[in-house]
């Protein structure tokens, strides 16, 4: 009889879903109060996503809104799905520190993300850079982000990403004002 320890047939990979922010109730109220979930696709938001993709030379970029259990894309490039589960969202991690960009240089070598279905399967994300997009009251609604199937090394244009995210926050505030005036 062989008493040697057995290796699992499949290697186990884990990922860490993001916890909800401490102020989730207030943050969700800001999402619910914003017109961005109800508005038709906005050219200004699409333009900012296009600039973000270009800035990073990335095939995928988007402006996400983190709703209760989903991550909905107000604008997107190179991403087929209009929404994903919040549980597997990179953006759910990015809103936890809204004043700082979140950069994942190589998701496959990062224990927090290596087992994420978007890393293990299509679209095979390796690189992510995202910055929170804020409601007028300062609560994070979601993120402006870029993703790639290739990991990244070296300096990144994070100051420009911060600026684009601020512009996205302003564009959403403009949508909200337009809806309120209508």
Topology:
Blueprint: H1 24-33, H2 43-56, E1 60-66, E2 70-77, E3 83-85, H3 91-94, E4 102-104, H4 117-120, E5 127-134, E6 140-148, H5 158-181
Short description:
Helix 2 runs antiparallel to helix 5. Residues 1-12 have low confidence and may be disordered. With 182 residues, the protein is of the alpha+beta class.
Strand content: 15-25%
Distance between the termini: 78 Å
Biggest β-sheet description = 6 strands, antiparallel
Total DSSP helices: 5
Mean pLDDT over the full residue set: 90
The residue ranges in which pLDDT falls below 50 over 5 or more consecutive positions are 1-12
Pairing-aware structural class of the strands and helices? alpha+beta
Q: Specify Rg, calculated over alpha carbons.
A: 18 Å
Shape: globular
Order of H and E elements? HHEEEHEHEEH
Number of β-strand runs: 6
Helix content: 25-40%
Strands of the widest sheet, in order across it, are 3-2-1-6-5-4
């Amino acid at each position: 009889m062989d008493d040697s320890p057995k290796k699992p047939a499949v290697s186990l990979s884990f990922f860490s879903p993001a916890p909800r922010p401490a102020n989730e109730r207030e943050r969700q109220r800001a999402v619910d109060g914003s017109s961005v979930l109800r508005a038709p696709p906005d050219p200004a938001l699409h333009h900012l996503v296009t600039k973000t993709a270009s800035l990073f030379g990335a095939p995928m970029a988007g402006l996400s809104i983190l709703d209760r259990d989903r991550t909905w894309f107000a604008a997107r490039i190179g991403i087929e799905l209009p929404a994903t589960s919040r549980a597997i969202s990179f953006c759910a991690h990015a809103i936890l520190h809204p004043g700082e960009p979140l950069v994942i240089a190589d998701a496959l070598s990062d224990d927090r993300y290596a087992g994420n279905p978007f890393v293990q399967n299509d679209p095979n994300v390796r690189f992510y850079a995202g910055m929170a997009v804020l409601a007028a009251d300062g609560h994070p609604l979601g993120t402006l982000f870029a993703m790639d199937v290739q990991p990244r090394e070296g300096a990144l244009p994070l100051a420009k990403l911060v600026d684009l995210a601020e512009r996205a926050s302003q564009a959403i505030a403009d949508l909200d004002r337009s809806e309120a005036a209508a």
